[in-house]
Specification:
The structure holds 3 protein chains of 3 kinds.
Chain A (H helix, E strand, L loop, with lengths): L2 H18 L32 H6 L4 H7 L3 H11 L11 H14 L11 E6 L8 H8 L1 H15 L3 E7 L3 H16 L4 E4 L4 E10 L8 H8 L23 E5 H13 L1 H5 L9 E8 L5 E6 L4 H8 L9 E6 L5 E4 L9 H6 L8 E6 L4 H15 L5 H17 L6 H17 L3 H6 L1 H9 L1 H10 L12 E4 L9 H5 L5 E2 L7 E2 L9 H5 L5 E4 L13
Parallel strand pairs in A: 1-2, 1-5, 2-4, 6-10
Antiparallel strand pairs in A: 3-4, 6-7, 8-9, 8-10, 11-14, 12-13
Helix pairs in contact in A: 3-7, 3-10, 4-5, 4-7, 5-7, 6-7, 6-8, 7-10, 14-15, 14-18, 15-16, 18-19
Chain B lengths: L12 E5 L3 H4 L1 H12 L3 E5 L5 H4 L3 E3 L6 H14 L5 H7 E2 L1 H8 L4 H8 L3 H13 L3 E5 L1 H4 L4 H14 L10 E3 L6 H6 L6 E2 L3 E2 L3 H11 L11 H10 L4 E5 L3 H4 L3 H10 L2 E6 L11 E4 L8 E4 L4 E5 L12 H13 L10 H11 L8 H4 L4 E2 L23 E2 L18 E6 L15 H6 L4 E4 L1 H7 L6 E5 L4 E8 L7 E5 L12 E4 L6 E2 L3 E7 L3
Parallel strand pairs in B: 1-2, 1-5, 2-3, 4-15, 5-6, 9-10, 10-11, 16-20, 17-19
Antiparallel strand pairs in B: 7-8, 12-13, 13-14, 16-23, 17-20, 18-19, 18-23, 21-22
Helix pairs in contact in B: 4-7, 4-8, 4-10, 7-8, 13-15
Chain C lengths: L1 E5 L2 E5 L4 H7 L23 E4 L6 E2 L10 E3 L3 H16 L15 H8 L23 E3 L9 H9 L5 E4 L6 E4 L15 H5 L5 E3 L12 E6 L8 E7 L2 E7 L12 H5 L14 E3 H8 L4 E2 L5 E3 L2 H19 L4 E4 L6 H15 L4 E2 L5
Parallel strand pairs in C: 1-5, 16-17
Antiparallel strand pairs in C: 1-2, 3-4, 3-5, 6-9, 7-8, 10-11, 11-12, 13-15, 14-15
The chains are: A alpha/beta, B alpha/beta, C alpha+beta.
Bound molecules: flavin mononucleotide, iron/sulfur cluster (3 copies) and FE2/S2 (inorganic) cluster.
The site of one iron/sulfur cluster has 14 residues of chain C, from helix 4.
Chain lengths: 540, 530, 364
């Protein structure tokens, strides 16, 4: 491949693309950009046919690689650092720095005599956060941008072999990569002596079995090596001793998809977006009680309010915003006072949460924060690799306490034990999963301690979620006797004539919540104390 | 072994021939596996797909008894392609041209014909061994227990010398000795032709030295080997035998012959820890102490002399063998005092004084860990690697050898080749391991391995009983069909006296080493109807 | 040389982990998942120390030292963290030390004792697994497992067999064969390396249960009676009987590793079938003593005293020698006997009989 050829392909493909056009399929989770969005990573998604490398080239694909191969690796690293790009996989570590360390490690060892690669580049496409799907969108919609990013990264750090680790639950992503890789090889954009510059690089796909912890980079390396994925202590960092003991850089899909854009448009262009320490854009998967959920890409520094109320069009059913859970299972819940904080790595961390991979779940007044904490703890406990006791046993004990609390069995001592556990788990666990596992608990305890105390001392779940810890009451001064609740009640225990205030036959109410959801006039309130039929029979 | 067990970790390649290492020498086998996992290359030459074959880069399934052809073929390819260590051959060896002349006809195609191994594999193996340095050769009874065993050992030495793999860390020619103290029993002169330290009985100077040490004239005539003794007993030349800690009625070849021979003796003494099959024929049985009940030393396969310590008392009136031998010898000498030793250490002191390799070894020194002989003086640290810098005889001599077919080839009447060996869970005639309940659980009975292609026409299903007959005897054993084994070959162990495989084997001896051909016997297999 | 301070003390070391450097300088750091024969894993979090500048506590067993590093191995924070980990471990551990095979020999028990963890603040589920006694030699009590993975690593790093692994995740994770089968149904070779490294009573020698506590037994290092590798091990003795074989980690030949025969094949020593008294053919006894003799359990043999038996042996050998010459006598030495014994018997053959008819089954 030469620059001339690439330009010829581009010209031809641009014409073709203009004629043919590409339609976003109606079942795609990715909608066209909404006002306020800036698409860098997602720019080609839906705009090109991901199974035609020519389409990608039409969008200037692989021109960044050509440019990079005319620079020295050191210049590439410098440019990446200057852009201010930080890893999008969660930790926010600058990729340029990672490549620099890896490059140093490669230089410090003798070249392998047995023909094995001197170093590896791994693209982390494990995306295990429940509800996150931005990496999938990129891999499915624009696989070549990731491949190009990988080639650039590999050149910078000195790797000749790359792996894309994709979870088995993403068959379309795998399929599109399986198409893209041979196409790139055929055009000489992967393989030996790329652009005649003496740079060799090839990519293979590795399928993950879908364990959340396998997204952790050292566990991922174990998994590629064919072992059960379990995080390793660092140091040694993968950049020094990673896959098969060789210097290795693990970079996230979104991180890598940014790379070609940075080299096409320049580091300054990229650094022009975002805040002081967090540059560029970030994708978020907004979910929960928000009207317009879905995948978005916005500049760093945007506020939560802008995301939820402008792009997300506000809370469903005119309910009150309670909190936003960001960063996935290891992230935290931020209350309304953070709505106007600009979103970047630093401010989220300062608030006790995480950028994570970009999950954002909106919670409203009917979400119980103790139960939310319990939900995430359940997930994390299940996904703990089981290697270190603080995480494996600590999260189990936390989960047990939270479960007890949501079953009206919490004690004052439990509140103390939670604090004892969370403090110690976060400082003694081996990897970020264990260390971060406590974040949902810590942030909810910090911002919603009253809910915990209500659960413990009053055995009352004020959000009306925890079974057996509340009942409903029809407010006589609000009820206009419309009768909707009566019709909805599955057990027919609501009495009342039309236009007359209704009443629940409490001893027979199972507290299913159908009436509460149905009432258009907010005439049904949540009150402490269980009904006989809502009490839990036994421990769950 | 020319090298040390620890040393194997440094090998870049292994050629393992005639050794099911992970079962026979499990600790060495695990060491090989670790080295291979770290990237060392592994070539396995064995008619069975043994455990190591599964992780090998090349598995050569030779016909039993065709090892010389294979080894010569490897030398042929290495010489033809100029891959040999020219400096080593020039500086440290002699006889290269003669050897070259002999291996000249062992082209891959010719060797493929004899061994049944594809010619490409022979070439690949040769290149692999020659280009990975250092490379260690490991072999065991699969090589030695053939009528041509001694010649095969020569062929192995040729290969190692050719590639300069002797006297280097991680290389060497490494015979793995079967029993815990075969090495020591040989070192101490438990052989018919040598005094302790391999000093020839026929050598007048050495004999004179021993005569002075022992204060008596000694016979200059090399004696009989085990199998020769059995033959002599059979013909009535040998009248009395004193057997210590052996069970020839299970372990020796051609058992019917052995039984008859032992019965013909006028007098038989057995000294053992159990009432063995052989003991039943004895006139006197002397109860001996087991390893944990006495002090002494064992020498392992890497020539390391190590202490055996007394931990418990022998049962009943049983006594350590050394005390029993002293008591008998004292009576024979008519002077009990001349055979009194106050400890096993005192015996070692006497032995070390006349055994050059052990001269610097004493129990006291061994307290701090074993020592590898040669250890010529009390301040010598022992020798990890033999032939460093120089061979004991000066220049290493290539000994050209020709392929010799097994004594008994399969024919129409006995169409299969039986090869015998060992398994992990049991040991030898089983007198020890059959008395460990858990080992019997793990491996309760003998199973004859046979390839499905051979089993099918015989109507043999897995678990069937089969009658295995040779020209000398027959046994029945349960059948295990497996493609681990080469078609045309069946495999059994000698661990189960009730399935005494040595009823079948042939007492055909290697002309030099006098080792019987356990590894190739022509047999016929038939199904037993239940 | 790297200079660092540990607990305020300036130390120079050529390199290594904090644990190695501490140990070399007489500073003890508790460990559980670490074992000298295995690569460090950093799993158990008992060896956590404070490294200045690090947000979280760091495992000494994997953390390499570096220039100017400041380490605290016994600060209140560190001790509290270790205690926390122990409390967690204890919350999922049976408290039946009284009957546990490893009592007094258990690394967990030692640490619980050292850190005075009388009670655990955590109440909750604990694992309930039936005692797995379906295999010979190896008893698996997975309720006692602390998930240190030493067994798995031994099976991988030392034995290169990988019969056992971690299955499941989170609280349900468990050391087992891939499909949670009996060891016999896996590729396990029953080397017992896993037992030798297990710090608790989770993996123990089945045949040794109830036979003696560590302080009731004495250890005698010796050489294995089976194959030619010549492994060393420790015989564990109680009341004059061998009750167990344990690894001897210092020996250069096997470095603690053993095979199934070496580790578990000692029972024959105390078999009721052992020969305990000299035996003579009934007719021979009669010839010598003129009486019938005391019958033995073996048909055709009577029990003899040593004097008579030895005299009979001497006479039998001398008769053959005098009647047919020294070469009418054949003697077999033994590859299972000691060097000293082999030396003596060949000397007997050569010096007292005058024959070189001496051999042994070297070739078998
Ligand atoms: C439990 C856990 C799960 C993780 N999952 C992912 C993941 O699915 N995708 C990802 O890119 N990074 C994941 N990470 C972060 C990686 O360890 C690593 O930091 C990241 O792949 C580095 O890429 P980046 O520098 O481009 O962000 C996870 C980390 C932890 C602790
Ligand atoms: S923190 Fe959890 S996931 Fe991480 S190593 Fe420990 S047990 Fe495994
Ligand atoms: S006995 Fe040996 S092979 Fe079996 S599980 Fe334990 S270490 Fe692995
Ligand atoms: S069985 Fe023993 S060695 Fe294995 S993980 Fe459990 S406690 Fe550790
Ligand atoms: S000993 Fe260091 S973490 Fe277990």
């Amino acid at each position: 491949m030469t620059l001339k050829e690439l330009e010829r392909i581009r010209a031809k493909a641009q014409k073709e693309l203009a004629v043919r056009g590409v339609e976003i399929s109606p079942d795609s989770e990715l909608k066209p950009p909404r006002p306020g969005e800036v698409r860098v990573v997602l720019r080609n998604c839906g705009q090109i046919d991901p199974e035609r490398i020519e389409d990608y080239i039409a969008k200037d694909g692989y021109f960044a690689l050509y440019k990079v191969l005319n620079m020295t690796p050191e210049q590439v690293i410098e440019e990446a650092k200057r852009s201010g790009l930080r890893g999008r996989g969660g930790a926010g570590f600058p990729p340029g720095q990672k490549w620099f360390f890896a490059r140093q490690a490669v230089a410090s060892r003798p070249a392998p005599a047995d023909g094995t690669p001197p170093a590896y580049l791994i693209c982390n496409g494990d995306e295990g956060d429940p509800g996150a799907f931005m990496d999938r969108a990129v891999l499915e919609g624009d696989p070549n941008s990731v491949l190009e990013g990988m080639a650039i990264a590999a050149y910078a750090m000195g790797a000749t072999q790359g792996y894309i680790y994709v979870r088995a639950e993403y068959p379309v992503a795998v399929e599109h990569l399986q198409t893209a890789i041979p196409q790139a090889r055929r055009l000489g954009l992967l393989g030996k002596n790329i652009f005649g510059k003496g740079f060799d690089f090839d990519v293979d796909i590795r399928i993950g079995a879908g364990a959340f912890v396998c997204g952790e980079e050292t566990a991922l390396i174990d998994s590629i090596e064919g072992r059960r994925g379990e995080p390793r202590p660092r140091p040694p960092f993968p950049a020094v001793s990673g896959l098969w003991g060789k210097p290795t850089s693990v970079n996230n899909v979104e991180t890598l998809a940014n790379i070609p854009q940075i080299f096409l448009n320049g580091a300054d262009w990229f650094a022009g977006m975002g805040t002081e320490k967090s540059k560029g854009t970030k994708t978020f998967a907004i979910a929960g009680k928000v009207k317009n959920a879905g995948l978005i890409e916005v500049p760093m520094g945007i506020t939560m309010r802008e995301i939820i109320y402008d792009i997300g069009e506000g809370i469903l059913n005119k309910k009150k915003f309670k909190a936003a859970q960001t960063g996935g299972p290891l992230g935290g819940c931020l209350p309304a006072k953070y709505l106007d904080t600009p979103i970047d790595f630093e401010s989220l961390a300062a608030a006790g949460s995480l950028m994570g991979s970009g999950g954002l779940i909106v919670l409203d007044e009917n979400d119980c924060m103790v139960d939310v904490a319990r939900f995430f703890m359940d997930f994390t406990q299940d996904e703990s690799c089981g290697k270190c006791p603080p995480c494996c046993l600590g999260t189990k004990r936390l989960l047990e306490i939270l479960t007890r609390m949501t079953q009206a069995e919490g004690t004052a001592e439990d509140l103390q034990t939670i604090e004892y556990l969370t403090e110690n788990i976060s400082t003694t666990s081996l990897c970020a999963l264990g260390q971060g596992s406590v974040n949902p608990v810590v942030t909810t305890m910090r911002h919603f301690r009253d809910e915990y105390e209500s659960h413990v001392y009053k055995k009352f779940c004020p959000s009306g979620v925890c079974k057996g810890m509340f009942h409903y009451e029809i407010l006589a001064d609000v009820c206009n006797g419309c009768g909707v609740c009566r019709k909805k009640c599955p057990d027919k225990v609501i009495k009342g004539d039309k236009k007359v205030v209704h009443e629940i036959d409490l001893p027979n109410c199972i507290v299913c919540g159908d009436c509460y959801k149905a009432c258009k006039f907010d005439a049904i309130a949540i009150r402490p104390g269980p009904t006989p039929k809502s009490r839990l029979p036994e421990r769950r | 072994m020319t090298n040390s067990i620890e040393d194997l970790a440094k090998a870049k390649a292994f050629l393992i021939i005639g050794s099911n290492t992970t079962e026979q020498h499990p600790i060495i086998g695990a060491g090989v596996k670790r080295a291979v996992r770290r990237g060392a290359k592994l070539i396995v030459a064995d008619p069975r797909r043994i455990e190591l074959a599964r992780m090998s880069s090349l598995h050569l399934m030779q016909r039993p008894g065709s090892d010389i052809a294979l080894l010569n073929g490897l030398c042929h390819v290495i010489i033809r392609e100029g891959l040999y260590d020219k400096a080593f051959v020039a500086d440290r060896t002699e006889g290269f041209e003669e050897m070259k002349a002999v291996v000249d006809k062992y082209t891959p195609a010719y060797v493929a014909e004899i061994t049944g191994i594809p010619a490409e594999d022979i070439q690949a193996a040769a290149r692999c061994y020659a280009t990975s340095k250092p490379a260690a050769i490991l072999y065991s009874m699969g090589i030695t227990q053939h009528a041509c065993g001694h010649a095969t050992v020569m062929a192995i030495a040729n290969l190692a010398m050719l590639c300069g793999n002797l006297g280097v860390e991680g290389g060497g020619v490494n015979p793995l000795r079967g029993q815990n103290n075969v090495q020591g029993a040989c070192d101490m002169g438990g052989l018919p032709d040598v005094f302790p330290g391999y000093q020839k009985v026929a050598d007048p100077i050495l004999r004179a030295k021993m005569e002075t040490a022992w204060g008596t004239p000694l016979s200059d005539k090399p004696g009989l080997t085990v199998v020769e003794m059995m033959n002599a007993a059979h013909t009535g030349k040998l009248k009395a035998m004193y057997i210590m800690g052996e069970n020839p009625l299970v372990t020796d070849p051609d058992l019917n012959h052995v039984e008859e021979a032992l019965k013909r003796l006028d007098f038989l003494v057995i000294q053992d820890i159990f009432f063995t099959e052989t003991a039943a024929l004895a006139d006197v049985i002397l109860p001996a102490a087991a390893f944990a009940e006495k002090d002494g030393t064992f020498s392992n396969t890497e020539r390391r002399v190590q202490l055996v310590r007394k931990a418990v008392e022998p049962p009943g009136e049983a006594k350590p063998d050394w005390q029993i031998i002293s008591a008998i010898a004292g009576r024979l000498a008519g002077d009990k005092g001349s055979w009194e030793y106050d400890s096993s250490a005192a015996i070692m002191a006497e032995a070390a004084a006349i055994t050059p390799q052990y001269a610097g070894i004493s129990h006291k020194r061994l307290e701090n860990g074993g020592i590898q002989w040669p250890c010529p003086s009390a301040d010598h640290p022992g020798t990890k690697i033999l032939h460093l810098g120089k061979f004991s005889r000066g220049l290493g001599k290539f000994m050209a050898v020709e392929s010799i077919p097994p004594a008994e080839l399969p024919d129409a009447e006995y169409p299969l080749t039986l090869t015998t060996g060992r398994r992990l869970q049991h040991y030898h005639s089983g007198s020890m391991t059959h008395r460990v309940a858990g080992l019997n659980t793990l491996l309760p009975e003998e199973r004859m391995e046979i390839h499905p292609a051979d089993a099918e026409p015989l109507g043999l299903a897995d678990g069937d009983m089969a009658l295995i007959a040779s020209r000398r005897g027959q046994v029945t054993a349960r059948v295990q069909r497996t493609d681990r084994i080469k078609p045309g070959v069946v495999f059994m162990t000698f661990h189960f006296p009730e399935t005494a495989v040595n009823l079948l084997t042939i007492a055909m001896l290697d002309p030099v080493a006098k080792i019987p051909e356990y590894k190739a016997t022509a047999v016929r297999v038939t199904r037993v109807r239940s | 040389m790297t200079t660092l301070t540990i607990n305020g003390k300036t130390i120079e070391a050529p390199g290594g982990t904090i644990l190695e450097v501490s140990q070399a300088n007489g500073i003890r750091i508790p460990t559980l998942c670490n074992h000298p024969a295995l690569a460090p894993k950093g799993a158990c979090r008992l060896c956590l120390v404070e490294v200045k500048g690090s947000r979280v506590l760091q495992p000494a067993c994997t953390f390499p030292i570096s220039e100017g590093m400041e380490v605290q191995t016994e600060s209140p924070k560190v001790r509290a963290a270790r205690k926390f980990v122990l409390e967690l471990l204890l919350s999922d551990h049976p408290k039946d030390c009284m009957t546990c095979e490893m009592c007094g020999n258990c690394e967990l028990q030692d640490l619980i004792y050292e850190y005075g963890v009388k009670e655990t603040p955590f109440v909750g589920d604990h694992h309930e697994y039936p005692l797995d006694d379906r295999d010979p030699f190896i008893l698996r009590d997975m309720e006692k497992c602390i998930h240190c993975r030493r067994c798995i690593r031994a099976c991988d790093e030392i034995q290169a067999v990988n019969a056992i692994t971690m299955i499941n995740r989170g609280f349900r994770s468990k050391v087992a064969t891939s499909f949670d089968t009996r060891l016999q149904d896996s590729n396990c070779v029953f080397c017992g390396q896993c037992i030798s490294v297990c710090p608790t009573g989770a993996l123990t020698e089945k045949d040794s249960h109830g036979q003696g506590r560590v302080w009731q037994t004495t250890k005698v290092t010796t050489t294995c009676p089976y194959c030619g590798v010549g492994c060393n091990f420790d015989l564990n003795i109680r009341d004059g009987k061998v009750v167990k074989v344990t690894s001897n980690w210092n020996n250069p030949v096997n470095k603690g590793a053993l095979c199934v025969k070496g580790r578990f094949g000692w029972q024959f020593l105390h078999s009721p079938d052992r020969l305990t008294i000299p035996l003579m053919k009934s007719s021979l006894w009669k010839e010598h003593k003129g009486t019938e003799g005391a019958p033995s359990r073996y048909e055709g043999f009577v029990e003899a005293d040593w004097e008579t038996a030895l005299d009979a042996v001497a006479k039998g050998l001398l008769t053959a020698k005098s009647e047919d010459g020294p070469d009418a006598v054949g003697i077999l030495a033994s590859a299972k006997c000691t060097n000293e014994e082999n030396y003596l018997i060949q000397k007997l053959a050569r010096r007292e009989i005058g024959t070189n008819n001496i051999d042994h089954c070297a070739r078998l």
